[in-house]
């Protein structure tokens, strides 16, 4: 599922993301699968930032970070930080 989601985000499959992703997020939360919850929120944040919804994206990235910390996955945590940083830099460039 992780790689299918990544494909949807990269291909801009909006309907699949908005309809299917919340179901996967709920399942991962119910089953206390922090790694998957973090991954899904991280990809949702990427999707939101690509669509210009930076405040929503930041919220999703923060939730992803919390879940990766709970899981002890420093590599994925770094990816979420990187995603947050990349859209903040873009936002800063617009201001300059």
Descriptive notes:
The chain is an all-alpha fold. The protein has one domain (14-20, 32-95). The chain is 88% helix and 0% strand. It contains five helices and no strands. The chain is globular and about 30 Å long.
Q: What number of domains?
A: 1
Mean pLDDT: 84
How far do the termini sit from each other?
A: 39 Å
In what range is the share of β-strand residues? under 5%
Number of helices: 5
Spans of 5+ residues with little confidence (pLDDT < 50)? none
Shape: globular
- Strand tally is 0
- Helix and strand content put the structural class at mainly alpha
The level of helicity is over 70%
Summarize, please.
With 96 residues, the protein is mainly α. The chain is built from 5 helices and no strands.
Helix/strand layout:
Blueprint (H helix, E strand, L loop, with lengths): L1 H10 L2 H17 L3 H17 L3 H18 L2 H22 L1
Helix pairs in contact: 1-3, 2-3, 3-4, 3-5, 4-5
Which key phrases capture this entry?
96 residues, single chain, globular, mainly alpha
